[in-house]
Amino acid sequence: MKHYILFGPPGAGKGTQAKLIVEKFNLLHISTGDLLRKEIALGTPLGLEAKQLINDGQLVPDEVVVGMIQNTFAAHPEVEGFLLDGFPRTIAQAQKLDQILQESGGQVDKVLSLAIKDSTIFDRIANRAKIEGRKDDADPAIIQNRIDTYHEKTEPLIEYYKKKGNYCEIPGEQSIEEVFDCICKVIG
Ligand code: AMP
Q: Which of 60, 153, 154 to mutate to test the pocket of ligand 1 (most atoms within 8 A of CB)?
């Protein structure tokens, strides 16, 4: 059972690449952002709790997303592997993931990190706002919050995974096809 992480700031192209990767490598895509948006659309208590935080550009609590990941792992024992998109986003989430995977004899096989400049993030998100209509994409102050949150809470994971030796950086400012090509070379 393979476990890959698709890592990077908001707007780096994780969702776009995830679709291509899961199709080619027969993996199950788990996007914690998509799962949270589903809960919001359904109006569940978890969705109600997450909604305000997401719309402010803040992270939802670690236990919430870890619980969603555990449920999805447990519901799909049949798959060849998982592609985690947007998880982990904190050191605590990464540690918990390591613990969960160790218990089942697994590991994080590769961290595919899409690197883009902060200035590119704004352009990409503004573009996505027109297509997907996400509320957290529409307001520059919220986008800035998400970038700040990324630098403060998520970026430290780069060192965490570099130390483990499974971190691979992919230049994210190339075309969709070129980025995908680089990813295929890493996991193919
Ligand atoms: P995304 O679709 O990955 O950009 O996620 C949208 C929003 O969902 C983020 O800005 C966070 O508020 C929340 N979220 C998604 N994944 C996580 C996570 N692993 N930890 C905490 N919050 C998350």
A: 60
DSSP code string of 109-164: -EEEEEE--HHHHHHHHHHHHHHH--GGGS-HHHHHHHHHHIIIIITHHHHHHHHH
CA of 126 to the centre of ligand 1 (A): 18
Q: What percent of the chain has pLDDT over 70?
A: 100
Can 124 be counted among the known catalytic residues?
A: no
User: pLDDT tens for residues 135-185?
Assistant: 899 999 999 999 999 999 999 999 999 999 999 999 999 999 999 999 999
41 class by beta-carbon count within 10 Å (0-12 exposed, 13-18 middle, 19+ buried): exposed
Q: Going by DSSP bridges, is the β-strand pair 110-115/2-7 parallel, antiparallel, or unpaired?
A: parallel
CA–CA separation, 113 and 168 (whole Å): 6
Query: What domains does the chain contain, in order, with CATH numbers?
Result: 2-181 (3.40.50.300)
Q: Among residues 185, 164, 170, which one has the least CA distance to residue 109?
A: 164
CA nearest to 37, candidates 50, 22, 28: 50
Residue 32 alpha carbon to ligand 1 centre in Å: 6
